[in-house]
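$ ./design --mode recover --in tokens.txt
reading tokens...
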């Protein structure tokens, strides 16, 4: 099973690429949380500090995570199940004026 992850803005610069494909064994149930854990293993401290709150360990409140264009807050949060070919996007805060 393969899941694509898209990075934007500062996270894209931090990682040095705009996308990553993460593979998991076929038949394994995969959640958004599993993908984030794998990304933390791949990209280390800088990724962890950007994505996770240092005190609580939760996702930074300013980030938006989308699965196939839908916010995980409208799905099952970090426990949202993923299937082969899904796309997880990690979006920074949006500003404007």
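writing sequence...
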């Amino acid at each position: 099973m393969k899941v694509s992850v898209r990075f934007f803005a500062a996270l894209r610069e931090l990682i040095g690429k705009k996308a990553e494909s993460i593979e998991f064994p076929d038949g394994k149930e995969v959640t958004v949380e599993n993908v984030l854990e794998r990304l933390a293993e791949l990209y280390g401290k800088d990724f962890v500090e950007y994505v996770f709150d240092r005190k609580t360990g939760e996702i930074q409140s300013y980030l938006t995570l989308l699965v196939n264009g839908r916010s995980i807050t409208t799905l099952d949060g970090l426990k949202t199940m993923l299937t082969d070919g899904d796309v997880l996007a990690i979006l920074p805060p949006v500003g404007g004026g």
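exit 0
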